[in-house]
């Protein structure tokens, strides 16, 4: 009897594992198939490789640009701006959400403003920021923050408010005040909210930074994209977009790693 | 000698936009040191409000509360409060949950730590000190919550239906358990419950409240006439049924003329 339960368990595990491998296989397959199709399409003239480029051309462009146009500098600038604006977004989010929680009346007053700022398309702000603050890195970092920060303040504050009243009462019955409620219950209880907000924020910061670079930069991938579209170097443009894809994925995975580390530590 | 706790002409109302809800009208009773007093009454009659008033979380509309003859605000005794749910924090280990109160009151030192260790040992939680609350059974969690409360060495312990979240069997054994722990530590306790048999089995005096707005209908002194009384042995004592009938009638005499059938407990 025992042997049988063991084998059904084994069969179950096997099934789960094979499913996992299947998913992984098809993910890679889809990517390779797309690259192959793209290459064939341009080789056989189904698409115009001047406009649509091709994998081989993209790789060649990559080498050229690394050698002659300092591609890594552009990547580094975009990456640095994104990470700085992400860090500032975290700090600003936590500080503001705590203030809103500490002063509920202030929070009530601020609510409609936060909602408006959150729904406003931030790309509309970027030209204004350039005029106000000048075409420099500071402006681009602020543009990155402006896209992410309002939404994450709202969702973290929401998390604060969903902490159960009873848990807060416990702190009061143990003789603690509002500050202890904040540090012992509200902050630790809403860490999952913060982590899931961060996963969204890292992508939004990248969006904001690229928007900023579109209009006010001499370096960075956003600048490369605009520049190459103006001089019609579509190989550059497509390469930049592919690099952006890779950066977005790496940054997102980085935040996921932080989240994983937090839950394992628990 | 002054009683440890005295409630004098306590009135209290809740206010909302819909109007005023009278919860308590002219509540008077005393708790002597070392006594175990239970307050019973129909659900929603304002029993928990009494505990919130004594712990200072709410202020009475009129009337006053005295601790050892002094007004509540001027007294410096520690009042422990056990809530309906254990509210152990999942992001803390059992040990760090248990020392939460000490942490909040900045009383964490070698002496108090030793005391916590001793209690964990005595109440069989030592091997779970690094476990997460979710790994413990309901009864063990409630015991951990009790240690958290007792770690602050309260002179008066308020119990707000602390067993109501447990299933019936666990509830009996945990009530027995905690009743004996409190007896052994000679704690003064005030228990609020809607379960008549729980009140009779644990308390020396039972305060019977009417439905809202609550008034004290009667105070029944429990004397089982047995030695080394525990909550479990009280339930089997011959006098138990008589007390049950008395309090049952007291609770129901203005509402319906239901007759109590032996065997249908609570």
Could you state the oligomeric state of the chains shown? heterodimer
Give the strand tally of chain B. 10
Outline the low-pLDDT stretches of chain A. Answer: none
- Main CATH class of the largest domain in chain B: Alpha Beta
Largest sheet of chain B: 6 strands, mixed
Backbone CA Rg of chain A: 24 Å
**Order of helical and strand elements of chain A:** HHHHHHHHHHHH
Q: Supply the CATH superfamily name of the largest domain in chain A.
A: MetI-like
What top-tier CATH class of the largest domain in chain A fits best? Mainly Alpha
How large a portion of the residues of chain A is in β-strands, by DSSP E? under 5%
Number of helices of chain B: 9
Low-confidence stretches of chain B: 256-266
Q: What do the pLDDT scores of chain B average to?
A: 84
How many individual β-strands of chain A?
A: 0
């Amino acid at each position: 009897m025992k042997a049988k339960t063991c084998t059904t368990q084994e069969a179950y595990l096997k099934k789960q594992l094979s499913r996992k491998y299947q998913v992984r296989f098809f993910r890679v397959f889809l990517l390779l198939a797309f690259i192959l199709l793209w290459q064939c399409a341009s080789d056989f003239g189904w698409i115009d490789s001047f406009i649509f480029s091709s994998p081989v051309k993209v790789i060649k462009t990559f080498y050229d640009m690394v050698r002659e146009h300092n591609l890594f500098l552009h990547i580094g600038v975009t990456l640095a701006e994104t990470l700085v604006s992400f860090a500032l977004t975290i700090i600003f989010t936590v500080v503001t959400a705590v203030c809103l929680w500490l002063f509920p009346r202030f929070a009530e007053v601020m609510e409609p403003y936060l909602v408006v700022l959150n729904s406003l398309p931030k790309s509309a702000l970027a030209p204004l920021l350039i005029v106000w603050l000048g075409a420099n890195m500071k402006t681009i970092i602020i543009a990155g923050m402006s896209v992410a920060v309002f939404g994450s303040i709202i969702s973290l504050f929401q998390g604060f408010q969903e902490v159960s009243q009873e848990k807060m009462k416990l702190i009061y019955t143990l003789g603690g005040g509002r500050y202890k409620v904040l540090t012992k219950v509200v902050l630790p209880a809403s860490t999952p909210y913060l982590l899931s907000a961060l996963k969204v924020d890292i992508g939004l910061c990248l969006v904001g930074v690229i928007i900023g670079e579109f209009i006010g930069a001499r370096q960075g991938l956003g600048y490369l994209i605009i520049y190459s579209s103006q001089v019609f170097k579509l190989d550059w443009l497509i390469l930049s977009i592919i690099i952006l894809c890779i950066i977005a994925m790496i940054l997102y995975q980085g935040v996921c790693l932080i989240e994983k580390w937090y839950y394992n530590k628990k | 000698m002054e009683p440890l706790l005295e409630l004098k002409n306590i009135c209290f109302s809740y206010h909302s936009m819909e109007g005023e809800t009278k919860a308590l009208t002219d509540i008077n009773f005393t708790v002597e040191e070392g006594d175990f007093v239970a307050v019973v009454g129909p659900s929603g009659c304002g029993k928990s409000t009494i505990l919130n008033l004594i712990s200072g979380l709410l202020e009475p509309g009129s009337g006053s509360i005295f601790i050892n003859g002094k007004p509540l605000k001027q007294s410096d005794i520690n009042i422990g409060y056990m809530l309906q749910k254990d509210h152990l924090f999942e992001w803390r280990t059992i040990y760090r949950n248990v020392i939460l109160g000490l942490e909040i009151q900045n009383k964490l030192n070698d002496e108090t730590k030793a005391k916590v260790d001793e209690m964990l040992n005595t109440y069989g939680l030592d091997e779970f000190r690094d476990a997460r609350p979710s790994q413990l059974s309901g009864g063990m969690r409630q015991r951990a919550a009790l240690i958290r409360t007792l770690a602050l060495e309260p002179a008066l312990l308020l119990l707000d239906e602390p067993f109501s979240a447990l299933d019936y069997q666990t509830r009996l054994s945990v009530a027995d358990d905690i009743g004996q722990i409190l007896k052994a530590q000679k704690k003064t306790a005030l228990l609020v419950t809607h379960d008549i048999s729980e009140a009779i089995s644990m308390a020396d005096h039972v305060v019977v409240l009417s439905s809202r707005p609550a008034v004290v209908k009667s105070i029944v002194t429990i004397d089982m006439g047995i030695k080394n009384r525990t909550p479990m042995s009280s339930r089997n004592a011959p006098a138990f049924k008589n007390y049950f009938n008395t309090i049952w009638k007291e609770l129901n005499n203005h509402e319906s003329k239901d007759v109590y059938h032996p065997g249908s407990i609570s």
